[in-house]
Amino acid sequence: TMPKPRDNRDRTPFIPDTVRAQQQVAEAVMKTDDDDEEMSAEARRMVQEMAQAVRRKTQKEIMQESGGAGVYAMNYRDHWMLREEDWKSDHVPEIMDGKNVADYYDPDIMAKLDELEREEEEMIAGYEEGKELGMAEDEDLTEEQQAQVAAIREKKSKIVVKRRIARGTMNNARLSRRAKGGTAEEFVEELGELGVDATEAAKDASSRRARSRSRKRSSSRGPMEEEEEDAEKKRKRSASRALSQGAGYRSVKQKVDAEKSAKRVQREFKKSERTAESDRKIAVKRPKHLFSGKRDIRKASTQGR
């Protein structure tokens, strides 16, 4: 079967210019006389010159001419086949939300930006000049409004300072109230701000501290009494420790009996090599894959190992 033409266009084979030039030079060489060495040398020189003139440089050669590796950057648009050569250097449009950004670009945007900055500088200069002349920025306000503005500014400055302090101590360890310290008057004042009257509590606490100090000063115990008191404290501590270790039992005897019973139950599991009552594992002492089939050439004493 032969392919059928789809239209009447004449599609001639495409021959690159370099190949066409080489063919022409080859034809010229063939026409020269082989015995004439001068003509042959001249023909070879012509071939070399035409090949160099038509030959396209490789990227490696262009890189070496342009500074070498690390300096030269290849232009990937050189090999684009476009209708116009100038189109290769055009900027690729930036698309956002399906629209071309260049359509919304104002060519005078930089001039307008400079004008806005100039106006802002003039406003700042006028404000500074008014402050130097003593013109109050809130002179049109009433006394009540001025007081409100002052209160708002003061509160805002306090919030800013508090936030800066919190930001500076955010990653530090927090101190407890006892480590921070403070007097009873400060404590009473803080509770008063919260609406709690703590004057009586502060008086009771101060009188209690005074009594404890006087009791410590008036105590005149001998060394024997101090040793007896220390021994009593140790006995109480040991009793409390024993109670905490055996918590859940009515007496020490009950705890000992429970431990013995647990060991007795565990002894049966140890005999049968089980971990608990639910352990159903059966250890294979003679696995079949080691003790069935033909014997190999090893000694009989090592069989099954």
Distance between the amino and carboxyl termini? 77 Å
Bin the helical content.
55-70%
* Overall pLDDT score: 76
The protein's oligomeric status is single chain
The run of helices and strands is HHHEEHHHHHHHH
Number of strands: 2
Give me the number of helical elements. Answer: 11
The largest sheet is: 2 strands, antiparallel
Shape: flat
Structure class: mainly alpha
Strand order of the largest sheet: 1-2
The low-confidence runs, each spanning 5 or more residues with pLDDT under 50, are none
Radius of gyration computed on alpha carbons: 52 Å
**What proportion strand?**
under 5%
What does this structure look like?
The relative contact order is 0.02. The chain has 11 helices and 2 strands; from the N terminus they run αααββαααααααα. The longest helix has 26 residues. Helix 1 packs antiparallel against helix 2. Strand 1 and strand 2 form a beta hairpin. Strands 1-2 form a two-stranded antiparallel sheet. The protein starts with 16 loop residues before the first helix and ends in a 14-residue tail after the last helix. It is an all-alpha fold. It is flat and about 140 Å long. The model has no long low-confidence stretch (mean pLDDT 76).
